[in-house]
Structures are given as C-alpha cells and as structure tokens.
Amino acid sequence: MEYLLLLAGFVLLIKGADFFVEGSSSIAKALKIPSIVIGLTLVSMGTSAPEAAVSITAAFSGSSDISLGNVIGSNIFNLLTVIGCAAIIRPIDSPKEIVKRDLWWNLGMTGLLFLMIFDKSISRWNGLILLAGMVIYLFIVVKRAMENRLEENPVEVMPIPKSIVYVILGLAAVIIGGQLVVNNASIIARSLGMSDALVGLTIVAIGTSLPELVTSVMAARKGEPGIALGNAVGSCLFNIMFILGATSTLTPIHVADDLLTDTLILIAVSLIVMIFVITGRKTKRWEGVTCLACYVAYTAFIIMR
After folding, report:
1. Residue 15 class from Cβ within 10 Å (0-12 exposed, 13-18 middle, 19+ buried)?
2. Residue 241: exposure state from Cβ atoms within 10 A (0-12, 13-18, ≥19)
C-alpha cells in the first residue's frame, strides 16, 4: 500500500506543478508581464513546487534529513540529468544572462549553503539570509527583464477565473502529494533499513525533480534548448534560497554527516556544469552524456556508502 500511495503522491506533485505553472503563466500573460520574467520566475518556481512541499512537510514531521537531502539531491539531478538529457536531444545554447549571472549565483549560493551547514544545522537566521538572497536575486532578474522589455504580440490565454482555479487546484495537489511522498517514503525507507538522508537524495529527489526533467526535455524537443538550461539552473537557485530558506526559518534543520559530503559534491557538479556551459557558449551532446554518467556514478556512490 505504501508504494501505491508513494506513486500517487508523485502523480499529484507532477500534475499539481503542471496546473500551477499553466495557471500562473496564463495570469501573468493576461496582466502583460514579460514572458522572460515568467520563465525565470514562475516556471522555475512552479517546477520546484514539489520540492517545496516535500521539504517543508518533512521538516515539520521531524524528517529534516529528507528535507535537506531532497534539495541537494534535486539540484544534483537538475544539473546532471535534466541538463544532460536536454543536451543529448539538442545541444544547449548558453544565454548571456545565465553565463554572466545565474551560474555564478548558483555556485555562490551552493558555497554559502556549505558554510551554513558546517555546524550540522541550518538555523532560522541562516534561513532568513537565504530568503533575503532570493528577494535580491528576483529583484535583479525582474529589473533586468523590464529594462529589456519588448512589445509582445497578443497571445491567447485562459480566462482569469479558470487560471485562478488552475493555480488553486495545482497548489492543493502539490501539498497533498508532498505529504503522501514524505510519509510513505519514510515508511518504505525504514522497512528497508535505509536512512532518511539516502531516501531524500534518491527516491524523493528524483520524484520531485520530474517536472523539471519533463519541462526541459520538452523544451529541447521543441527547439528551445535555452529554456532547458534556464529552468534547471533557476530551479536550483529556488531550491536553495527559497525552499531551504523558508523551511529553516519555520523550523531549524538538522544536518546529517553524509550531507556535508553531498554538498561538496554539489559544488563540484556546479563547477563542472559551469565549465560545460561557458566553453563554446554551448553544452554539447558528449557533455550531456558525461553529465548522465556522473549522475549514475554519484547514485552508485551514495547507495554503497
């Protein structure tokens, strides 16, 4: 029964995030908010909604290792698997803003996270610092986007009432799905002798990152590979600054010893992806294959340790 409920939770998370993104994007377009702002904010936030639901629910239920492990595991999955799959489908061009701003923000916030967890906890003050970083980052992104705003052709959008219903239903599905995933993943993990940290880094992280994977792969198939990169990097930033910031502000997070090592690995992965993206201004297919191989090696490492 736990496996069926876990699967149901993942379905609710994925469909809920899809509804949330569609409804929010429609509202933004109806209000004539630039599409670039939608992509950098609503899409990355919407696809990270499952991580937010799971991490906050896990922290309040006393499974803080799942909360932090989910974020670290999701970011590693986003950088290696999401970008890797998209690059294999079609080499990813590197937008100037991502090269000059977002990749550096991601590396800096990941390094800051490692410093914060060095004492084996993320305090409320640490959480407030991460949330402040999120506010500053969004201000910079929106300000830059508005400065470069272009008149856009009118597009068809859903009626506002229908969009609001989509947003409400999406958020409800994400919250319920998050509770199902955390509760049943914990039960399964303990029955198999797995630690909460390992479950967060593997089962939960992969499951909650499926929206990012689907979004980026579809973008690559439609000939918009740049969206794949922006979605993955933007989601990583949102995971660290907002999800961990909000979670630790509400309740301090305990940090397992193994998660220190995984955060160092995340820093190394961030550097590798940055090199791939910057060199040649494009992430090539062989680099995508390398990313996937690295994720397979990482998964084998955390299972065997």
Report:
1. middle
2. buried
